[in-house]
Amino acid sequence: MDHDFLGLLTTAGEAQITRLLRAGTAIGSDPRQVGRELRRLVAGYVGESSYRHDPAVLELLRQLSGELAASQHADGTYDIGNLHSPPDTAFLVQDLCVVWELLKDDDQEIAATIHEILAKAGPVLASGGVHTPNHRWEVSAALARINHIQPDQRYVDRIDEWLAEGIDVGPDGIYSERSSIYASAVTNPSLLTIAWLLDRPELVEVVRRNLEATLHLLEPNGEVDVIASRRQDQFQIQDVWGYLLQYRELAIVDGDGRFAAVAQGIERRSVGELGDFWAEVLERPDLAAKLPPATEPPTDFVKEFPSQSSVRIRRDTRTATIFGGTDFHDVPVIASGLSVNPTFFKLRKGDAILDSVRLAPQFFGTGHFHSEYLRRLSPSVVELGAEVAVPYYQPLPPERRTADGRYALTPDGRFYASMDFGERPRDYRTLRTVITVAEVESGFDLTFELSESEAPYAIELCFRPGGVLSGVDEIDDSGNYQLASGTGVYTVGDDRIEFGPGSGTARVRMDPGERYRMLNGSLVPAGLRVYLTGRAPGVQRLEIRTV
């Protein structure tokens, strides 16, 4: 056993329990959160800890399990954001199954309460629907767990029905949601649970491929690149900590030193809620086996991910992401489940982090540049591009005219009007944008070529808060700067990112487009924002260097 690892989880878990006992939990709390609190408490109650068989912990376990029994609907589901929700119930059920497994020999009363909850939830999970790709695997894992406690062929049949749809993973190991949150917290652990309980080794291979891919998305500080995500994390900073047990399990099974190094890095940094893994390790002690000798994960590569149209480049402590895979050009709406982040380039050198580079032409309210493709011109030279065509409408043909002037309310692509747009002749103004990103010895050259129509544009570089900018002019006191001439520098400690040349003092605002402005929305990233401007048609080069 890896006693240092167990000690880390015990310390983290005891801190969670201390907070829970101090705060208590009000009746009517979110059932999923209550389930997670039960899992945290039971680990300390049955494990080798200062809270083992603690009366206060036992009392809170009884309170919370009783609360869950009382709030469960007659059909076996819970209201957790969504009403009578099978997938949200499945998240809760997974935690409750772990609690039951650990508590069944310590407190029969609580175990019986949870057993009854599971008996009511099983049939609805075996018949109810879902919303997202990862829900299928969460529900299947919950059914596998209930089946392990209360065997029922209906549960296995339903799992097989979902699995028969195929796992939504590309050849490059990226799931269809392209999300670090849902890969680490839902899909990977769910597939490993099904593989463990139902002996489905082919599912382990799916997770292995995703973990291989994630090795190339890791930043030196433990963050995971999420620019391509189709979910909420596309605009967030994500850490690799949620992958801990997945990397541990596959490192142990495969003897993979790279996976062991990632797991050890997570343990060493001790970020995130590591106590959440304590109960699962008590349930499956094999996850606490000693890791194989660590070997360094890849740190010098150019890696393309075709399923999300991105390229990752790493040279030791310098990493970059080039992204051309948004869904916005095909489905121009803003919603969870779509990739709409307009960032097309990111760069970091050690602690100096350029979180995003974006381009926004002022062209009929169409908003930021979103690439329609990613094309590799050479191993480390990438082309992105898009064409936006905006119509002017001609009079309706005679046969489409009405005497009362009442025409169908139709979309133009930016707005709606009672104009019967689809039946009108039209002529277009077109803006063609091509961006070439080329790696050079000490950084990258970004070349912007905008053609066909006239349009002012702004280039936005957003640096992570915590550093110092020099060589730029402050526009206001809200973190906005402009590079009018020469070279700008962003410095954090000994790490520097230099960028330029400046392009003049003309100011062009970053226009998020009609879809955002209509709802008073915003696409302003958090950080220190530096702007360069230009005017189409024309060519502009931005040199970014690391020191």
Which short descriptors sum up this protein?
547 residues; alpha+beta; 15-stranded mixed β-sheet; two-stranded antiparallel sheet; 21 strands; globular
Quick overview of this protein structure:
The chain is α+β, with helices and mostly antiparallel strands. The protein is 34% helix and 26% strand.
Any overview of this molecule?
- This protein has 13 helices and 21 strands.
- It has 547 residues and is an alpha+beta fold.
- The chain has a 15-stranded mixed β-sheet that branches. The chain has a two-stranded antiparallel ribbon with strand order 1-2. Strands 3-4 form a two-stranded antiparallel sheet.
- It starts with a helix and ends with a strand.
Topology (SSEs and partners):
Elements: H1 3-23, H2 31-46, H3 55-71, E1 78-80, E2 82-85, H4 86-103, H5 108-125, H6 133-149, H7 153-163, H8 180-198, H9 201-215, E3 223-224, E4 238-239, H10 244-254, H11 257-269, H12 278-283, E5 300-305, E6 310-315, E7 318-323, E8 345-349, E9 352-361, E10 373-378, E11 381-393, E12 409-411, E13 416-418, E14 426-440, E15 443-463, E16 468-470, E17 473-474, E18 480-482, E19 488-492, E20 495-500, H13 514-517, E21 528-546
Parallel strand pairs: 18-21
Antiparallel strand pairs: 1-2, 3-4, 5-6, 6-7, 7-8, 8-9, 9-15, 10-11, 11-14, 12-13, 14-15, 15-21, 16-19, 17-18, 19-20, 20-21
Helix pairs in contact: 1-2, 2-3, 2-4, 3-5, 4-5, 4-6, 5-6, 6-7, 6-8, 8-9, 10-11
